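Session log. Operator J.P. requested a structure for one protein chain; no other inputs attached. Running the standard single-chain path with C-alpha cell output.
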Amino acid sequence: MGTIVVSPKARVGRNCRLHPSTCIGEYDGAPTLGDNVYVGPGAKLFGNIVIGNNVAIGANAVVNKSFGDNLTIGGIPAQVLSETPSTAQGLYPDELFSSL
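Structure written below.
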C-alpha cells in the first residue's frame, strides 16, 4: 500500500484520515492539523504550518503553508480549490458527526 510518515513533533487533531504514502514532516518545525482533516494519498505536508478544521487535502498535494478551516486544498504547491469542508464531501461516515 505505502508508508505513512508522521514527524514526532507534528500534532494531529481528532478524526483525521491519513492515506497511504503520505508524509507529515519537519522543516523548521512540524505541521499542526486540526480536527476532521482528510489527507489524500501521496500528500506531503511539511514545515511550521497549521491546517484548520474540516480541511480536505487532495492526493499528491504539497502543502508548505497554513490554511484555515472548511476548505479543500490541492496542487503543487497547495492552494484553495474550494470552500467545501471535508465533512461535507462524504469523506467520513455520517454517524461520526451526528453527535456534534
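Operator note: The chain has one domain: 5-96.
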